Amino acid sequence: MQHKLNAIRRACPSSRRPLASPARPRRAGGFTLIELMIVVAIIGILAGIAIPQYQDYVARSQFSEGLSLASGQKAAVTEAFSYKGICPSNASGGTDGIPTATSIQGSYVAGVEVGGTASEAGGCTITANFKEAGIAKGLLGKYVKLTMGNADKGSVTWACQSSADKKFLPQVCAQVAVTPAGK
């Protein structure tokens, strides 16, 4: 009977089946411990870089709120200076269309003070004071101050200064080391 099977196999080459290979040990599927450790190390390195960058991004966005709230008072201050020749002050109450300092606040800003000493060039200031808690570390208790200038030349400009860390400031703002007396 074996001869008949061999004869049939020779007659039909497509019916030949490879002989079974000797038993080989099968490798188990999955990842090795070293491969998993490498992946964890890579994720750790990426997180070590990404988290500080994200914190800086959050602080810059919080700073922009202060700059935005301060900038919102520019028109009223410029108008009061143009018509009356004074720098309005909102420390004790609203004046010249500017609400009180504590009425102008945001999620990260405690209040926006308007004041300054009028001169021919301007001299009016708008200061946004950041909160003492609940915001980025580099902004805690800091301020951003806009100072009017160039009013005597017919084109009002605003200089920006801040006590916040330099890495959080936009290019138009300069960092100051000391807190102004009028803060």
Salient structural properties:
183 residues; alpha+beta; 5-stranded mixed beta sheet; disordered C terminus; methylation; N_methyl_site; transmembrane helix; fimbrium; Pilin
Put the structure in a nutshell.
With 183 residues, the chain is an alpha+beta fold. It has a single domain (41-175), classed as Glycoprotein, Type 4 Pilin, CATH 3.30.700.10. Helices cover 33% and strands 20% of the residues.
Task: Please provide a written account of the structure.
This protein is an alpha+beta fold. The chain has one domain: Glycoprotein, Type 4 Pilin (2-Layer Sandwich), CATH 3.30.700.10. Helix content is 33%, strand content 20%. It contains three helices and five strands, in the order αααβββββ. It has helices at 2-11, 33-71, 74-84; strands at 109-119, 122-130, 143-149, 157-162, 173-175. It has a five-stranded mixed sheet, with helices on one face. It is rod-shaped. The relative contact order is 0.12.
Topology at a glance:
Layout: H1 2-11, H2 33-71, H3 74-84, E1 109-119, E2 122-130, E3 143-149, E4 157-162, E5 173-175
Family: Belongs to the N-Me-Phe pilin family.
Protein name: Type IV pilus assembly protein PilA
GO biological process, one term: type IV pilus-dependent motility
